[in-house]
UniProtKB/TrEMBL annotation:
Pfam families in alphabetical order: FGGY_C
Keywords: Kinase, Transferase
A single BP term in Gene Ontology: carbohydrate metabolic process
UniProt domain Carbohydrate kinase FGGY C-terminal: residue ranges: 14-177
Name of the featured protein: Carbohydrate kinase FGGY C-terminal domain-containing protein
UniProt xrefs under InterPro entries: ATPase_NBD (IPR043129), Carb_kinase_FGGY_CS (IPR018483), FGGY_C (IPR018485), FGGY_Carb_Kinase (IPR050406)
GO MF annotation list: kinase activity; phosphotransferase activity, alcohol group as acceptor
Length: 242
């Protein structure tokens, strides 16, 4: 349990066990927002080619170097979830200059989400939980490039299941166990959770990403410690009340 309540603790479906949860509110949703607001060209081209616009966006992100040419994204587009729980937090793209291109923005999005997950991984370590690997689920896990960024930033092996939709898979596991197809939930999960691919950390990237992660955290702390998020929120609210 985290005495600072930065992460949540809930009863697990497996009897006698508990699950620690760290919810961040905008991961894949952040990339979707940039697709809708910035990536119109990719969406049009993807439609013409019969491709997924996210594939075009992440392939462009691969052309940008680590650190996105000096762009840092704080992905708090609907406030901050774990470990901050700050409803006043806002998204931020820091370091933007005329020399930047869309590929840099897309890479900053991928790295920014990974930095946010890293914050929670560090909390887990503080309370004695040392994950050996991270299972990636959902639409974002389809990107091999993003998955490698996760592995490099987090410093642990990342794994994608054959079935990427975790909610549906979880329901199937419970149903299979309840129907007696497996002796218990653990056995059902063991049989239904098949690994598709793994990504291991690239040690050549670890030192740089460690520095970028620390910078990202310092940037958030500066905004929060100086109450800048709330000040901006109050400014807008007061204007709307005039």
């Amino acid at each position: 349990f985290d005495p600072q309540k930065r992460v949540l603790c809930s009863c697990h479906a497996v009897p006698g066990t508990w699950v620690q949860e760290a919810s961040i509110f905008t991961s894949g949703a952040t990339l979707r927002w940039f697709r809708d607001q910035v990536g119109q060209a990719e969406s049009i081209l993807a439609k013409e080619k019969g491709q997924d616009p996210y594939e075009l966006m992440t392939s462009q992100a691969e052309e940008s170097p680590m650190g996105a040419n000096g762009l840092v994204l704080i992905p708090h587009l609907v406030g901050a979830g774990a470990p901050h729980w700050n409803p006043h937090a806002k998204g931020l793209l820091f370091g933007l200059a005329l020399g930047h291109q869309r590929k840099d923005i897309y890479r900053a999005v991928l790295e920014g989400v990974a930095f946010e997950i890293r914050k929670n991984l560090e909390v887990f370590k503080e309370i004695g939980i040392e994950p050996k690997e991270l299972k990636l689920t959902g639409g974002g896990s389809r990107s091999d490039f993003w998955n490698q960024i996760y592995a490099d930033v987090l410093g642990i092996t990342c794994v994608r299941n054959v079935i990427e939709e975790a909610t549906s898979l979880g329901a199937a596991i419970l149903a299979a166990s309840g129907a007696g197809l497996f002796p218990d939930i653990s056995k059902a999960a063991e049989n239904l959770c098949k690994v598709d691919k793994k990504w291991v950390p690239n040690e050549n990237h670890s030192e740089f990403y460690e520095k970028m992660y620390n910078f990202s955290y310092q940037l958030y702390n500066f905004l929060e410690n100086n109450n800048l998020y709330k000040k901006l929120n109050d400014l807008i609210q007061n204007k709307n009340m005039e």
